[in-house]
Amino acid sequence: MPKQWFISDLHLASERPATIRLFERFVCDYPQTGDRLFILGDLFDYWIGDDDDAPLAATVRATLAEAARRGIDIAIQRGNRDFLMGKRLMRDCGARLLPDCHLAQVAGQPTLLMHGDLLCTDDVDYQKARRRFRNPLFQWLILRKPLDKRRRIAEEIRRKSGEATSLKNADIMDVNAETVVRYLRRHKVRRLIHGHTHRPDTHQHTLPDGSHATRLVLPEWHEDHVTAWCDDGASLQPVQVDQIAPGANIGRRSNASGTSNRASSASKSSVKSTSD
Ligand code: MN
Predict the structure, then answer these.
(1) Is the pTM of this model over 0.70?
(2) Cα(254) to centroid of ligand 1, in Å?
(3) What is the pLDDT of residues 185-222, one digit of tens each?
(4) Domain limits of the chain?
């Protein structure tokens, strides 16, 4: 039975190499041929355009393209940090770009998938900025600037917001409950999965007709661990993903599948390793 995997808010950045290795390990070891991988936004801590030639961009392209070649269906939503992700990147990664609201069948139930920033309507300033960032003319103007100029702008924005090193949820406003209910009703679903807020949890919402809906908030990624969510067709379950410490006995692990995958991941991600 093919599985569906849900992750978001990896915030991949060159100064967090451990998270990049964890991402490579996850993509290599967990989804199997025939599975679907949903990345619900903020794959990157920032994305300056699909022509980005930095090593991180190359690593992510290669990792996802390899997964696509293994027969994994990769579907990606834009986040508030990587809203400039476009068709060219998707082609390079062998992935599909999903709209901001995407309906999917999850564990037998129609489910709405979102990044989550659209739900944070109490943050009026952000919603205003979001409309500007998502304006095609604004994006065209940004993308025609040279790469190094875009890189400098991105670094400047990150420095000012103090978010280059901090991913605290205190910096991000939580969702507005009425907005959540509005989206649930508009899409006629009783389940919503999103990320963005860095407040992983499962919430219940009561709809005006008295029925109940579930909202699963995906966690942000850490240096050495993350919880992915997996739909095996019958139920949606958390799956703990840990980084193997360099030099650790990988034979100890029991929850990863595929010895050959694991071995290739370990040799790819650990340059210091000489034993294998
Ligand atoms: Mn976000």
Answers:
(1) yes
(2) 32
(3) 999 999 999 999 999 999 999 999 999 999 999 999 99
(4) 4-243
Which residues fall within 8 angstroms of residue 264, CB to CB, at 6 or more apart?
28
The alpha carbon of 54 and the centre of ligand 1 are apart by a number of angstroms equal to 22
Task: Provide mean pLDDT across the span 80-95.
Answer: 97
What one-character DSSP code corresponds to residue 134?
T
Interval between CA 110 and ligand 1 midpoint (Å):
23
Task: Report CA(146)–ligand 1 centroid distance (Å).
Answer: 25
Look at strands 95-97 and 73-77 and give their pairing. parallel
- Quick one: pLDDT at residue 249? 45
Q: Where are the alpha helices (DSSP H) in the chain?
A: 17-29, 55-69, 87-93, 124-133, 136-143, 147-161, 177-186, 259-269
User: Rounded mean pLDDT of 125-137?
Assistant: 95
d(CA 108, ligand 1 centre) in Å:
27
* Confidence (pLDDT) at 160: 80
Cα–Cα distance measured from residue 154 to residue 114, given in angstroms and rounded to the nearest whole number: 24
CA of 251 to the centre of ligand 1 (A): 36
Say how many Å lie between the CA of residue 44 and the centre of ligand 1: 10
As a whole number of angstroms, the distance between CA 84 and CA 50 comes to: 8
The SS3 of residue 193 is: strand
pLDDT at 2: 95
In the block, tokens 């009425």 appear at 178
Q: How far is the CA of 205 from the centre of ligand 1 (A)?
A: 22
Which CATH superfamily hosts domain 4-243?
A: Metallo-dependent phosphatases (3.60.21.10)
Ligand 1 centroid from CA 197, angstroms: 7
